[in-house]
Amino acid sequence: MKVLLIGALGQLGADLVKAYAGSHLVKADIDGGDIRLDITDRDAVRKTIVDTVKPELVINAAAAHNVPQCEEKPALAYAVNATGARNLAMACHATGARLVHISTDYVFGRGLSRPLTEADPPAPLSTYGASKLAGEHLIAAECSNYIIVRSAALYGSAPCRAKGGQNFVNLMLHLAKTRGEVKVVTDEITTPTYTAALAEQIKLVAEKGEPGLYHASCQGACSWYQFARAIFEIAGMEVNLQPATQEDFPSPVKRPAYSVLDNRHLNAQGLDIMPEWSEALYTYLHTLK
Description:
Helix content: 40-55%
Largest sheet: 7 strands, parallel
Distance between the termini: 35 Å
């Protein structure tokens, strides 16, 4: 199978490259790869997919996901996350390729306190979440052979370009070494998800899943405070970890207070291979040694 991976140089993209090792993989990214591609350029997208690469599977891991920047530059957020997604869907429809698109838990907002299924109505609180939700709708409208994968709170070995190269785990380790005290919020509940595990899950559902919308995060749930505590415990680090709330870190961006995903569609097809979040964290931390 010929696979075109867009966003190949990103945090998730790097693990998708590993997951598809040995496959006929073409790597594309706005910053380089085998092909330099800006998904906001409709003509370039069509030429790449329909005329040049002619893949059977396209995986889109590209996104504008610097959440504060999306609030400051909404036109850019929608150009990448919505119009860019539509460009890919139209090209895939034209050539008959399957499109796998990565979305986010930020399509949800406040109000629910149980794991969210694919059937729950989205209610984004931010430009980032709204632009990603728009991309989901545009893909569904333009391409019948699509898979949308929503995930949450990603971290992995490759640098996260939207966060200056850091992920939450590495940031906590850095703060533990350089400060005597670390404050982390207790009132945001999610499921931290290791990109290496997510990449294998995406590969499986891309090959065997029926078209449609899927949630794919690690199992279980925790606050960012609980996640930080687990990081320090597994790493064997002594740090004065203090609880905080969202009010202690004023931000113009509204974030979901609860965005735990239920991988119901994966489970219904017997395709859910995501590990518990604490098990995935243990695996990741041991890759750093």
